[in-house]
Specification:
Blueprint (H helix, E strand, L loop, with lengths): L14 H4 E6 L2 E8 L6 E5 L8 H5 L3 H4 L4 E5 L14 H16 L4 E6 L1 H12 L4 E7 L13 H11 L3 H10 L9 H11 L2 H11 L1 H13 L15 E7 L11 H6 L3 E6 L6 H4 L1 H13 L3
Parallel strand pairs: 3-4, 3-5, 5-6, 6-7, 7-8
Antiparallel strand pairs: 1-2, 2-4
Helix pairs in contact: 4-5, 6-7, 6-9, 9-10
Organism: Nocardioides oceani
Protein name: Alpha/beta fold hydrolase
GO molecular function: hydrolase activity
Length: 297
C-alpha cells in the first residue's frame, strides 16, 4: 500500500474547519480531519505536557500530509479537548486509539506519534500489529541508556504541574526547543490558558506530579508484565524513529534500544533541534517522514 492519492491544492487546513467529534461509549473523542477521505489514513497522536493538543503538535504539518493522506489528528482524553477522564491520561489514551479507529471503521493505518503519542503508538503496534502498517515516532519512545532519568524537561514539567506559574511554564517550554525564539508570547498565552483549565490541570497532576511518577515506578516494579520497551521486538510495522539531536526531554540515547530491537527500524536525527522536531525542523522532518510513508514496500 502506498500513499499515491494527492488532494487538489487549496487553502491550508484550519483549526475550526477540520475539527470533528466522534461519540463513543467512553465519551466524545474530538479530532481534526484533513485530506481526501479516500486517501490512505494517517493517524497522528500528540504528546503530553502543559497546554498540549493534537492541533498544536501537528496543525502546521497538515498542509503537506493532507495532500497524500486522510489525516486524523486524535485529541486524547484528559488534555482539555476530548471529553475529560478520571483515569491516568496514559491509561485513557491506550483504549482511545482502537475505539477511535473502530468508530471510523478503519482496520489499518499509518501512525505518527510525538513523545507520549509515540509510546501509545508503539504499544498499540505491539498489541494489535495487524492494524499498523508503518509507524513514525518523534522522540520520547525508548529507554535512557546514558542520560539521567527523568530528564531535564520532565523535571521542569513536574515542577510546573505541582505549582503552576508563568515562569515555570516558560522554563518548561524553553526546554522543549533548541531555538528559544520559538517560545513566543502567543505560544505562552495559548499554553497557559489550556494548561491551567481545572480538569486539564487535574489530569496533568495524575500523570506528572512526583507522587504520580513514583507510584507509576512502584507499579511497574510490581507488575508481572515487562515494560513496553522490553517488547519492542514484537513490533511488526516498518518504523521510522525521528529525533532532535538536542532533545532535553527525551535525550537521543533513548533511541538506541528501539533502533536495535525493532526488527525493521531506521533512525533519522535532526541537528539544531529539540523535542518538537515536527515544529522546529518542520521542512526537514516532513520531507523525511513523507518519503518514508510513501516508499514502495
Amino acid at each position: 500500500m502506498s500513499a499515491t492519492t494527492t488532494a487538489p491544492d487549496g487553502p491550508e487546513p484550519t483549526h475550526d474547519a477540520t475539527l470533528r467529534e466522534l461519540p463513543t461509549e467512553a465519551g466524545v473523542l474530538r479530532y481534526h480531519e484533513a485530506g481526501d477521505p479516500a486517501a490512505p489514513p494517517l493517524l497522528m497522536l500528540h504528546g503530553s505536557g502543559p497546554g498540549v493538543t493534537g492541533w498544536r503538535n501537528f496543525g502546521a504539518n497538515l498542509a503537506l500530509f493532507s495532500r497524500h493522506f486522510r489525516c486524523l489528528v486524535l485529541e486524547f482524553p484528559g488534555f482539555g479537548v476530548s471529553d475529560p477522564t478520571d483515569q491516568h491520561p496514559m491509561v485513557a489514551a491506550m483504549p482511545a486509539v482502537p475505539r477511535f479507529l473502530d468508530g471510523l471503521g478503519l482496520d489499518r493505518v499509518d501512525v505518527v506519534g510525538n513523545s507520549m503519542g509515540g509510546v501509545v503508538a508503539t504499544r498499540f503496534a505491539i498489541a494489535q500489529p495487524d492494524r499498523v502498517r508503518r509507524m513514525v515516532t518523534v522522540g520520547g519512545m525508548g529507554k535512557a541508556i546514558f542520560s539521567p532519568s527523568p530528564g531535564e524537561g520532565l523535571n521542569l514539567l513536574m515542577e510546573f504541574t505541582e505549582a503552576p506559574s508563568r515562569e515555570r511554564l516558560v522554563q518548561w517550554l524553553t526546554s522543549m526547543v533548541h531555538d528559544r525564539s520559538l517560545v513566543t508570547e502567543e505560544l505562552i498565552e495559548e499554553r497557559w490558558a489550556q494548561a491551567t483549565e481545572p480538569s486539564t490541570l487535574a489530569a496533568a497532576r495524575r500523570m506528572y506530579s512526583r507522587a504520580a511518577l513514583e507510584a507509576m515506578g512502584r507499579a511497574a516494579e510490581a507488575s508481572p508484565e515487562p515494560p513496553y520497551w522490553a517488547m519492542l521486538h514484537r513490533v511488526r510495522a516498518r518504523t521510522l524513529l525521528t529525533w532532535g539531536r538536542d532533545d532535553r526531554v527525551s535525550p537521543l540515547d533513548m533511541a538506541l534500544v528501539p533502533m536495535r530491537t525493532i526488527p525493521d527500524a531506521e533512525l533519522h536525527v535532526l541537528p539544531n533541534c529539540g523535542h518538537w522536531a515536527m515544529i522546529e525542523q518542520k521542512a526537514a522532518w516532513e520531507a523525511v517522514v513523507l518519503a518514508f510513508l510513501t516508499r514502495e514496500d
